[in-house]
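Query form — protein Cytochrome P450

QUESTION: What is the three-dimensional structure of this chain?
INPUT:
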Amino acid sequence: MDGETPWRMFAELRRAAPVHWNPEPDGGRGFWSLTRHADIVAADRDAATFTSEEFVNLEEVDERQAGIRRSMLEMDGPRHLALRRLLSREFTPRAVAGYATFLRGLTARTLDAALTGDTFDFVAEIAADFPINVLARMLDVPDGDTRKLIDWGNRIIANTDPDYADVLLHSAESERYRDLPFRSPASLEVFEYGRELAARRRGGTGADLISRLVNQPPADGVPLSERDFDNYFLLLVVAGNETTRHAITHAMRALIDHPEQAERLREDPGLMPGAVEEFLRWASPVYHFRRTATRDTVMGGARIREGDKVVLWFASGNRDENVFDDPDRFDVTRTPNDHIAFGKGGPHYCLGAALARLEMRIMFEELLPRLADIRLAGEPRRVRSNFVNGIKEMPVTITRA
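ANSWER: The structure tokens for Cytochrome P450 are given below.
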């Protein structure tokens, strides 16, 4: 699928069938697609009607599987809030601002290494390298382990991409791994690694994320089980790496395609905070999350039945012409910019939103002044996925400033 096809498809759905029923081609269980900004926001905020408890991707899981694989993403209500609060203070805007000096230094080191050559893969040398090192610091893991974290994230989240997946999601072999997140055997490696770290941190006084998970009881008084810890740690590894790197890559691609926008940011660095919001809207690094209707309801004139799967297409909402003027125009001065790349005010609003914004702002504040010119040196290669809007390879040629 080419890069423009999803946006044309979403535009047609928003116009003709904003709440659209998608039957499964094999006669199995279909799902509703929500494509308008207002409907997506309404469903995202209404966990009582549209629950995450039945899983947030389109894979069918039975009750036993759900119990084994359930992470904070697949919870609602008091338990979800208690697990979220375990680390929420570490991700507030005030808390992540304390990483600014570290991020400046990390960005400089990343760029010093990448920009030694004239042609290189932007994803491998910059976009993937940068956020994983931030995560490594927050987890307090050795710098030498960052490549393992990147590899695990690729293999787990891109479970429909033969370049990454150990076992493709819909293959017969994946049944052997049906109890693992994303049916990926790489999850076992992440679990083992996380358990080793937890064993060393338990009972200590560390302030890293793992120490807080193992030494700080949840507010509801229910301790984390080993399974709870496994799934929480895996979520940090995947979410802390994948989405920010894809957002950075898409932002760079957009600036390459719109050099006049890059020049505006060079001339006026004060535009960068607003530009980051446009980067996020444009990238929409997570295409969708799924919910399940807990009762019969009506949305956009469609009658949704209890038990129906309902998919919130955040990527479509970010191009909704009812919310964004000329939504297919990339504009670093766009205001207002009511994008929903992180969700919108619901209980599952992205925990790492403030950190992602800071990472992206500092990256482009440091990168753009170093470049007189940057162009594609080959066609970018996309991650084969309907879940993450990812680019796995983007060769570029630069002229240093």
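ADDITIONAL NOTE: The chain has a mean pLDDT of 93.
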